[in-house]
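Table S2 (continued). Query chain:
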Amino acid sequence: MSSKIVAGLVVGCAALVAACSTTTGGTPTVSDSSAAPSTVAVPAGLDVGRFPTTIREVPSPSNENAWIIEGNRMAEALIQVNEVDPRMKIGGAGLRSYPVLTGIQLKQRVPDATYNAFYDNKMRVGMTTTRGDTFDNPTVATRIGLYRFDTPDAAAKALAAIKAATAGQRQIPITGTDGVSATEFKPGTVDSYRVEGPFVINVSGTAPATDDAAKFVTKAYALEIPKVKSFSPTPVASIQSLPGDKDGILSRTLMQQSSALSSLSNAYYGLDAMLHRIRDISDADIYRKAGVDLVGEGAAIVYRTRDAAAATDMAAALVSTTRADKNHVAAASPTALPQAQCTERRESQTFNCAVAVGRWAATAGGESLAESQQAISAQFTILAKNP
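Corresponding output:
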């Protein structure tokens, strides 16, 4: 790819639609207690350690957080990379498939000339998706990025600055889509840009030969342009009005307390953003079959599914899929919560647990089994008491 790829965020349900109102901050309010789903019994003696067991107040978003919310919305305008080539299945959050603001994260994601052009023209937020045939050193890979500016004119100026900075590089023709500026970033990698309204689309393709990489870029634009054209961005003047929570899902998610990317790791988003984050797109059917339509991410991940049966099946499928990987082995469930299933990642000696609570499914991890068991127990308690 056209920038150094390092590991980023790792992404390891009764719905509130009828019982609670959507909030812009704070806790959801019950509009009709008689219509609220029944709570689930919390086992006696459940060890939750230091983790809270009550819903938390979600403040109205800061300007930075509001743009992150918009970035997660922009996932709807990104194709899945395996549509370009079915070999490109592996990637997700570990390859930065999540929103990015101007700063060190962007600088690690795009070439220097692109970073300078975006910074100078006040890029607001980007959303990218990256996959290849393997996670490390892929033979074939593609990154697709969608970067938001205040106006189409600002986006056009950013593209003009990139073109000026890359004028000395080998220019690569991209057929079938007008307005694309593409260069050979290095042999076998084509980095390209095109403006669509207030967005700059960036497609970077990698293959054994530059001509093959150009074919990936060409196909990606043919699929991506219609997606961007059908997407309705939130007006700049309304960004600050985006809700800090949706249907109370974030208030019911354990908060990530000590992350340098707090605006990224305390977020809610839909199925599209979820699928861009998962490591192997082959696992997408787990989420689709469960009817996942909303995800809350904090120190645990909470998924809203179609119904209780779907949540149960999804939690089981997540555990089964993880344990099928030779790098993972089964680990003990919490003593008082045997329905929560845990797994150890042997190479890193980290742990992850999954459980279903009504229409919610949840996952939580940690550096020790005890921490993971306590986190999933606390998350279970929150969802059980607040269905």
